[in-house]
Amino acid sequence: MNNVIDFTAQMLGVQGLKVIHSYVNNGIFTVCAMPSTISGICPKCGSTTETKHDVRVQDYMHLPIWGTKTVLVLPIFRLE
């Protein structure tokens, strides 16, 4: 199973993401991924933080793979 995840990550060509899971449902290839690092910079003080405050999931349409619609599912983090 790990080889399939590695192949999917290379096929998508996205950097800084770790593929967690992928599946095909109703002709749509869905790839769930996480950022390899989760950190942000405070706009007020400029310090770096990794403390998560909130998370939501965002779907992004990717280029078709093998003629199949492809959706990339990523968590979007709000940091404190």
Q: Give the low-pLDDT segments.
A: none
Count of beta strands: 6
Walk across the major sheet and give the strand order. 1-2-6-5
Report the span from N to C terminus: 35 Å
Q: What overall geometry do the principal axes of the alpha carbons give? A: elongated
Helix content: 10-25%
Number of domain modules: 1
Order of helices and strands: HEEEEEE
- Beta-strand residue percentage: over 45%
Rg from alpha-carbon coordinates: 15 Å
Overall pLDDT: 80
Largest sheet: 4 strands, mixed
Report the structural category: mainly beta
Counting H and I runs of at least 4 residues, what is the number of helices? 1
Which secondary structure elements does this structure contain, and how are they paired or packed?
Elements: H1 2-12, E1 17-25, E2 28-35, E3 40-41, E4 48-49, E5 52-65, E6 68-79
